[in-house]
Amino acid sequence: MPARVSSLLAVLAMALSTTTVSARTPAPLKVGLGIDGERVAIGGAEKVRVSGAEGLSELKGPVTVAVVDIARVRSIPLPAQYSVRVRYETDRARAEAVANALSSKVSTRLRVRATGGGHEVVAGPLGSEEEARELTRRLAEAGMRDAVVRKDSLPPATEKTRLVILDGDLVVHPVFAPEITLSSAGSDLLTVDGGSYRGELIVRRRGESLQVVNRVELEEYLRGVVPEELGPDVFPETEALAAQAVAARTWVLTHRHAHSSDGFEVCATPHCQVYGGASSEKSLSDRAVSITAGRVLVHGGELARTYFSSTCGGHTEAIENVFGGPPIPYLRGVSCLPEAERYRSVSGRAHPADWALVDGRAAHELLARLAAFGIVVKDELRSGGFDGRARADETASWLRRAGKRLGRSFTDDELGRVRLTDAGELVSSLATLLAPERTSALHGPADRDAYARFNVMKDLRPELREAASVGLRMGWLPAGLPPGWADERVSRGHVLEIVASWLEDGGELELERVRFVGIEGRELNILRGRGRTRAKVTLSPDVMLLSGPKTGPWLPREQVELKLGDALHLPVGTTGPLRYLRVEEDVDGAAYDRLSAYSWWTRRLSLDHLDDRARRRVGQRGLRDLRVTRVSPAGRVVGLELIGNGWRKDLEGFAVRQFLGLPDNRAALRFERDASGTFTGLRAVGRGWGHGVGLCQVGAYGLALRGKTHRDILGHYFPGARLADLRTLP
C-alpha cells in the first residue's frame, strides 16, 4: 500500500476514533456572558491570539473590539488574506472528524465550510504566505499532502457595520468576518467587563452591537458555576458542593442548546446556571468539581433532569406541580427534615442579676458577660446583691480591671476622687477620670445652653450637664436616663453598667456568632466566620449559660439543649475555658435548610401591587380578587384564580410564583378585606426560596454537616437516580 494512502487512512481512522470519543467527552460549551455594546475591552494577557481575522494571528494586549460604520473601515489599508485548503469531503460529519483530528496534530484550529455541494476542511485566515506554507509542511507530516495555499480576495461590503480591533500598540485592524475568537497567548487569563475567563472569548457582531461568548471546557465552566450557585464561603462543606457540581454538570449537558437561537448554548444568569468565570473560582468548590469530574446523574439509561433551588423550606416539590407535564419518579417531593433530631445537653451555671438596666431590661446577660471578661470575679458573683449601694473599693477594682483591658491605668489618688454620693456626682467624677484631657475646652456657651434644653439634663447643674454630655458622647453613660436620675442612689449595678458602656465604646466585651456542629465531653465543635472555619472550644465547668430568641431577652439557664446548626455566641479575646455561652432559641425548626435566610419569611402584597403584576404577567388590569384553587401535598400554592373587572384567569404551577413574586409558593396566604368585604391585598407567611424542585442547595449543606456524602445527598433529593461516569455512557 503506498505510504501516502497509508498515512491518509491513519488520519481518517484517527478522525473516526475521535468522533466516538467526542460523543462521550462533551465539546467545549459556548456561554453567553450577557455583555453587549458598541465596543468591548479585553485585557489580562500581554499577547492575544486572534482567530477569524484576516491577516491577524497575534496582537499585543490589551485589545478593544468595536463595531463601526463600514465607511470608516474602508478608509483603512487592507492586508492580504491567506488560507489553506486541507481536504474536501461530501459528508459534513466526516469533514468535521478530519478537522478535529488534525487540529491537535498541527497545532492549528481547522474549520469546515460548505462549498460546491460538499464541505472543505480549511485553515485560516492566516497572517502571511510564509505562515500558510509552514502549515502545509506540518499537514504533510501528518499525512495530508494535498493541502493548497490560497490567496483570498476580501469580501465585498454587504453590511453597514464591520468589526475593528485596537491593539495594545494603538494600531487599528479591520476585520472582515462577523466574529473573531480571542485567546491568551500565555498563561494569563483574558478579562472582560471586570471578570476573568478561561478558554476563548468569541466576539460577534450583531447589527450595531457586539456579543461576547465564552468558549470553555465543561469542567472549567463548572469551576465558575458551583461557587456562584452554592457559595463555599457561606456553605463550606465539600460534600454539599460536590452534590452541586454533579447536579450542575448534569443540568448543562441536558440544556446545552437552550440558547442556540441566541448564538450560544447556555447563559450565565439564573435563567440557566449562574456562571462567574475564573473570577468566581474558590479552592473548596474547585475540589468539589475535581473529585466529581465526569460524574453525572442518570435514570433509566439517560441523563437525569437535575433541577435545583436555594431553599426548599423543609420539603421539595414534585415537578408536575411546578413545571407541568407527567410525573418523573426521581423528581417527586421529598422531606427536608430529619426523621428524629438529635439534641445534646450542656450544663453550667445560672447567675440571675438582681438589678435592672437603665432602659428597664434585665441585666442577666450583661452580668454574665462582665464575669466572662474578668471584670466581675467569682466571689462577687456568688455574693450577689448588685442592687445594693456601690462601694468605693469595689468600684475602684472594676475600673482597674476594665482599664487594663483598654490599656489604661489609674492611680489610687485618681480612683479616690470617684464620688458615689449620687448618680450625678458619679457621672461628674467619671467624666474627669475617663474623658480625654481638656475636653471642657471643646464646649462653648451655646453648647451648654443647648444641653439645658434636653429633658435628661434640664434639672442638672451646668457643670454636670457638661459631664453628662461627655458621658453620652463617649458611650460610657447609658442612654435613656429618666428624669431625676442624677439624684438617685448609686447601686453596684449602676456602676457596672457604666463600666460596661465604657468597655464597649473601647471595642471590648465583643461576642462572636458561631454554629454548633457537635460536642465531645466539654469540647464544643463549632463553625466560625459565617461557617468558613471549623474549630474546637472548651467549656469551663462553671460556664454561665443563657438562652433566648435572636433579639433577646436572654435568660440564665443551668442547662441548654443544642441541635446541629444552632447559633451560639461566644466571648472574643478571652483565654482559657469558656465561661460564657449564649444560645439562640431557634424558631425556624429542624429542617436541613433552616440555616438559610429564607427558611421562614413574611410578605404583604397590596392590591395596587398585585394589579400591576397582573398587568405585566397576564396583560390584564382591574384585578378585584384572588382565589386559591389548588395546594400541593408539600403545601405550595400551585393553582390560583385571578378575578378582574369582566375577566378571569387561571394560573398553574410556576406561573403562580411568577405572578405573586414571593420567594417560594410554600406559603399560607391570608386575603385581606376591608369592612365592606372588598379585597385589599394579601399577607403571606412562607418558607423557602425558589421553585423547590430537585436539589435543595442549603438542605444539601445541612445534610453534609451531618456527615452525609454527595452520593447520599443526591440520593435523597433525586430518589431512584444514580451516579454514572460520562465515559461509560453510550
Detailed description of the structure:
The protein has 20 helices and 36 strands. Helix 6 packs antiparallel against helix 19. 40% of the residues are buried.
Residue share in helix: 25-40%
Indicate the mean pLDDT: 87
The number of helical segments is 20
Q: What is the C-alpha radius of gyration, as a whole number of Å?
A: 36 Å
Low-confidence segments: 1-9, 14-23
Could you tell me the strand content as a percent range? 25-35%
Give the termini separation: 35 Å
Task: Please give the number of β-strands.
Answer: 36
Oligomer: single chain
Largest sheet: 7 strands, mixed
Largest beta sheet: what is the strand line-up? 4-3-12-15-16-1-17
Shape: elongated
**How does the helix and strand content classify structurally?**
alpha+beta
Write out key terms for the chains shown.
730 residues, alpha+beta, seven-stranded mixed beta sheet
Outline the secondary-structure elements.
Blueprint: H1 3-24, E1 29-37, E2 39-43, E3 47-51, E4 58-60, E5 63-69, H2 70-74, E6 81-89, H3 92-106, E7 111-115, E8 118-126, H4 129-141, E9 148-152, E10 161-166, E11 172-175, E12 179-184, E13 190-192, E14 195-197, E15 200-206, E16 209-216, H5 218-229, H6 238-254, E17 266-267, H7 283-291, E18 295-299, E19 302-303, E20 308-309, H8 319-322, E21 344-347, H9 364-372, H10 378-383, H11 392-405, H12 412-416, H13 423-434, H14 445-451, H15 462-474, H16 492-505, E22 511-520, E23 523-528, E24 533-548, E25 555-557, E26 559-562, E27 567-571, E28 578-584, E29 601-606, H17 607-618, E30 623-631, E31 637-644, E32 647-652, H18 654-660, E33 667-673, E34 679-686, E35 695-696, H19 697-705, H20 710-717, E36 722-725
Parallel strand pairs: 1-17, 20-35, 24-28
Antiparallel strand pairs: 1-16, 2-5, 2-13, 3-4, 3-12, 5-10, 6-8, 6-9, 7-8, 10-11, 12-15, 13-14, 15-16, 18-19, 18-36, 21-26, 22-23, 22-27, 23-24, 24-25, 27-28, 29-34, 30-31, 31-32, 33-34
